């Protein structure tokens, strides 16, 4: 055997072992999450959110909505906030230097007035240009509704400005281009009220593409006509609904989606706020370094919180609830999806680089010994290794270096095993659980119709034959851009929820 043959065997064995290890972990996550989801759904059948709503011990919340060029979705998103079921909350919208009609649309539709408000600059941000407040016609439960207009500094900077303007002990971070379920805050806060050790809780993010939307509310879940969006639904079921549920059960969460999450304000203030180049807090500078920023602030803040909790030996944790609490619009073109995946990968690389001291650190418990290595080895380095395998193994086979049985084992371990995991994720998400006593209706994690579940099963079967390889390429490009370019956020164009409304039937985007 020559040098090329030795290289082929080593590379082939490495890729084969990676695929087996990765898919086995994913299958274990699905199984663990299925047990947790069924347990939580049984409890959900008996829960009474009115108790949380009417309890005098339920603390007020601040809903922080960063907005940058969101004129297409901002009115519908804010309309969904006006219908939230919660005893007392405030809404802080932060305009991050939009260049479109985001601010005029909010003023015209909501009646904001220019005014001075209480603003504590605990976290340093880009300059604030002015404040507006809605004083008349506040919805039930909304005690305060303000708009902070500031110069552009990025989403993380807008969140920090929202924290400065907030007056409540807990805050909700969400995207301006998302829709929040009317019971979302009650569902998420119930987790915190039942366990005072929870420092932050994330919720399941579902895709609004294909859903019937009326006046900022999801009337009926559906699936879109777009092939890319359907593949993404399968991904979200596997990664959000089940993957993060399993990581939450293992107390190993490193990311809560910026689309929706509830945080203890004092914990976020202790770690210095969301990472931006403006930060001056000691913990933020000590952990991440001066002048650092990231395009995935939702992951970095969780990693920093997890690191801080373990270094200070605080008995707090980050939790996750698998219920769909928020809906977002998925990209439906290859160009937009590539921008999103590229940014996610760059943000992952940035965060792991800033907190590399966690790698195999016993001091940091499961975060150092399991969570960080998992994200580093499988979510970051796994993309180039797996893509190289899809290219090199067939080439080595055609050159007569690798045997046909090895080629078969590779595709069974990668595409075959991966397909089984994706199908298992869809089945687990649609698995019915009795809602109460025998004879009662059954409930599922996501309220898709049976024919929609059948379609998603088909896309789960097809996902590993083209679509996954495409996303691997985008992730590899993301690593390249992290190393050799200075790309920023790269926001992709959205259709807007208002344009997706199709009364009486599921939307076909």
Task: Explain what you see.
This protein has 509 residues and is of the alpha/beta class. It folds into 2 domains: 1-51 and 180-509, no CATH class; 60-168, Spore Coat Polysaccharide Biosynthesis Protein SpsA, Chain A (Alpha-Beta Complex). It is 50% helix and 15% strand. The protein is built from 15 helices and 14 strands. The chain has helices spanning 3-46, 49-54, 74-82, 102-110, 155-165, 184-194, 227-249, 265-270, 282-288, 297-311, 334-354, 365-380, 382-398, 404-430, 450-484, and strands spanning 61-67, 89-96, 113-114, 128-133, 142-150, 170-174, 178-180, 198-207, 212-214, 217-220, 260-264, 317-328, 433-434, 442-443. The strands form 3 sheets. Strands 3-4-5-2-1-6-11-8-12-7 form a 10-stranded mixed β-sheet, sandwiched between helices. Strands 9-10 form a two-stranded antiparallel sheet. β9 (212-214) and β10 form a beta hairpin. α1 (3-46) crosses α13 and α7 crosses α14. The N and C termini lie far apart (55 Å).
Architecture blueprint of SSEs:
Layout: H1 3-46, H2 49-54, E1 61-67, H3 74-82, E2 89-96, H4 102-110, E3 113-114, E4 128-133, E5 142-150, H5 155-165, E6 170-174, E7 178-180, H6 184-194, E8 198-207, E9 212-214, E10 217-220, H7 227-249, E11 260-264, H8 265-270, H9 282-288, H10 297-311, E12 317-328, H11 334-354, H12 365-380, H13 382-398, H14 404-430, E13 433-434, E14 442-443, H15 450-484
Parallel strand pairs: 1-2, 1-6, 2-5, 8-12
Antiparallel strand pairs: 3-4, 4-5, 6-11, 7-12, 8-11, 9-10, 13-14
Helix pairs in contact: 1-7, 1-13, 1-14, 7-14, 7-15, 10-11, 11-12, 11-15, 13-14, 13-15, 14-15
């Amino acid at each position: 055997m020559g040098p090329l043959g030795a290289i082929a065997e080593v590379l082939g064995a490495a890729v084969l072992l990676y695929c087996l290890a990765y898919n086995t972990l994913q299958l274990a996550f699905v199984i663990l999450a299925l047990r947790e989801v069924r347990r939580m759904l049984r409890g959900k059948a008996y829960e009474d959110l009115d108790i949380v709503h009417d309890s005098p011990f339920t603390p007020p919340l601040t809903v922080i909505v960063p907005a940058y060029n969101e004129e297409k979705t901002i009115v519908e998103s804010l309309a969904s906030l006006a219908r939230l079921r919660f005893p007392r909350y405030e809404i802080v919208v932060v305009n991050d230097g939009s260049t479109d009609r985001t601010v005029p649309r909010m003023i015209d539709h909501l009646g904001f007035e220019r005014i001075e408000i209480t603003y504590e600059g605990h976290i340093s941000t880009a300059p604030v240009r002015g404040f507006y407040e809605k004083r008349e016609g506040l919805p039930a439960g909304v005690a305060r509704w303000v708009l902070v207009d500031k110069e552009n500094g990025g989403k993380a900077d807008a969140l920090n400005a929202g924290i400065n303007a907030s007056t409540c002990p807990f805050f909700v971070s969400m995207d301006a281009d998302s829709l929040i379920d009317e019971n979302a805050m009650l569902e998420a806060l119930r987790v915190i009220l039942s366990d005072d050790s929870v420092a932050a809780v994330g919720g399941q993010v579902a895709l609004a593409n294909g859903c019937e939307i009326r006046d900022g509310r999801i009337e009926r879940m559906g699936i879109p006509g777009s092939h890319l969006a359907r593949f993404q639904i399968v991904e979200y079921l596997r990664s959000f609904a089940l993957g993060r549920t399993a990581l939450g059960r293992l107390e190993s969460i490193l990311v809560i989606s910026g689309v929706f999450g509830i945080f203890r304000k004092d914990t976020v203030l202790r770690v210095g706020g969301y990472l931006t180049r403006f930060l001056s807090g000691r913990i933020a500078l000590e952990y991440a370094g001066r002048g650092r920023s990231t395009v995935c602030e939702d992951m970095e803040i969780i990693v920093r919180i997890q690191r801080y909790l373990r270094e200070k030996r605080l008995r707090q944790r980050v939790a996750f609830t698998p219920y769909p609490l928020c809906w977002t619009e998925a990209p439906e073109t290859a160009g937009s999806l590539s921008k999103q995946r590229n940014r996610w990968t760059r943000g992952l690389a940035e965060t792991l680089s800033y907190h590399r001291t966690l790698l195999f650190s016993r001091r940091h418990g499961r975060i150092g010994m399991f969570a960080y290595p998992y994200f580093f080895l499988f979510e970051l380095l796994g993309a180039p290794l797996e893509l190289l395998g899809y290219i090199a193994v067939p080439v080595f086979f055609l050159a007569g270096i690798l045997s046909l049985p090895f080629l078969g084992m590779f595709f069974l371990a990668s595409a075959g095993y991966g397909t089984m995991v994706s199908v298992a994720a869809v089945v687990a998400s649609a698995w019915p659980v009795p809602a109460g006593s025998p004879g009662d209706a059954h409930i599922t994690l996501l309220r898709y119709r049976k024919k929609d579940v059948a379609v998603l099963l088909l896309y789960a079967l097809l996902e590993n034959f083209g679509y996954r390889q495409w996303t691997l390429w985008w992730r590899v490009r993301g690593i390249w851009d992290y190393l050799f370019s200075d790309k920023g956020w790269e926001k992709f164009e959205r259709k807007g929820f208002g344009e997706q409304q199709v009364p009486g039937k599921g939307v076909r985007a």
